[in-house]
Amino acid sequence: MAGDMQSARGTSRLYQGKGPWLLLPAWAVIGIFLLLPVCLIVVYSFLTKEFHGGVIPEPSLAAYDQFFFDRGIFGDDPPRIEWNYIEIYLLSFLQAGLATLFCLVIGLPSAWYIATRPIRLRQMLILVITVPYWVNLLIRTISLKFLIRDEGPMNAFLQWTGLLDHPLHLVNTSYAVQLGLFYSYLPFMVLPIFASAERFDIALSEASADLYSTKWQTFRLITLPTIWPGVVAGSILVFVPSLGAFLAPNLLGGAKTYMIGSLIDEQFKGAAGNWPFGAAAATILMSVVLVVLILNARSQIKLKGAG
Amino acid sequence: MKQTRISLLALGIVALSGGGALAEGDVALYNWGEYIEPEILIRFEAETGIHVTMDTYDSNEAMLASLKAGKLGQYDLAIPGDYMVDIMRNEGMLDTFEPSDLTNFGNILPQYIDVPFDPGRHSTIPYLTGTTSFAVDRNKFKGDINSLALLFNPPEELKGKINVLDAQNDVLALASMYLGIPQCTSDRDQLRALNDMLQNAKKDWASFGSDNSREVLVSGDVTLSMTWSGYSARARDEGANVEWAYPKEGYIMWMDNVVLLKDAPNRENALKFMNFLLEPEIGAANTNYAKYAPVLKGEKPFLDEKIANAPESNPPADHPGTFVQSCSEEVQVVYDKIWANLKK
Amino acid sequence: MRRSGLRDMPGFAQIFGLCVFLLYTPLIVIAVYSFNASSSITIWSGFTLDWYKEVFTGIDSQKYRDAAVNSLLVAVIASALSTVMALAAAVGMLRAGSFRGRSISFGLIGLPLLVPEIVTAVASLIFFSFLGLSGSFLTVLIAHTVFCIPFAYLPISARMQDIPDLYETAATDLYATKWQAFRLILLPMLLPGIVSGYLLSFIVSLDDFLITNFVKGNGFETLPTVIFGAVRTGIRPNIMAMSSLLLLISIVLVLLSYLIGRQGREKFRI
Question: Is C214 helix (H, G, I), strand (E, B) or coil?
Answer without folding.
Answer: helix
